Fold 3-oxoacyl-[acyl-carrier-protein] reductase.
Amino acid sequence: MDVARIHKDPKNPNSEKFGSTIASEIESSRGREITITTMAATTPFNGIGKSVSRTVLITGVSRGLGRALAQELAKRGHTVIGCSRTQDKLTSLQSELPNPDHHLFLNVDIRSNSSVEELARLVVEKKGVPDIIVNNAGTINKNNKIWDVSPEEFDTVIDTNVKGIANMLRHFIPLMIPIKQGIIVNMSSGWGRSGAALVI
Ligand SMILES: NC(=O)c1ccc[n+]([C@@H]2O[C@H](COP(=O)([O-])OP(=O)(O)OC[C@H]3O[C@@H](n4cnc5c(N)ncnc54)[C@H](OP(=O)(O)O)[C@@H]3O)[C@@H](O)[C@H]2O)c1
């Protein structure tokens, strides 16, 4: 197995750079299994190939890595479908992209199963089944002792990072099975895999 690893460069922790790095890995890895460890995601997947334009659904595109990845993939000629909860940032992102009307941005809270179900319905109606889904939307509580993390804050982390991804898988995997095609990338964090003081 050929494993590519993308590591965060502590000297240049710049989202735009990561958008480009992740986009390159996704494009150039066709035919081999790669593991993205930047965000500690260790999900193996096959790439989408450089020469073919693909449809890529990314959750959490209003800012950060998701936005950078959306910009980079659109620049490289892929069709981007994006979601997050901040409408003005979705609108500004769409207007920044080459060929804006070609892409689809929807205001969706992935914590809501019914909203993700509606997202899947709209995506299929307007763009078909995505070739690749990047489950990027995520959140983290403030660094704290476990007993000082409020139940509300803890719920938000679990509802977004665990249940949100489950909602996406629940409504999109059944669309991919009949066509025997589809790649899912789940972003995570090193802090999701190992414990440390003040991090849960
Ligand atoms: N940056 C890093 O150094 C780093 C390190 C390790 C792992 N990661 C992982 O990489 C991913 C992206 O990180 P980031 O730093 O780019 O995060 P970020 O800047 O905080 O952006 C998170 C994105 O997720 C969206 N989002 C949050 N909750 C959502 C919800 N319920 N429904 C829909 N969208 C939601 C946010 O948009 P709205 O608020 O508009 O909805 C935003 O667009 C996360 O999964 C994170 O755990 C990042």
Residues 39, 59-66, 83-86, 89, 109-111, 136-139, 160, 164, 187, 189 surround NAP (CB under 6 Å). The CA atoms of residues 15 and 65 lie 5 Å apart. DSSP finds five helices and seven strands in the chain.
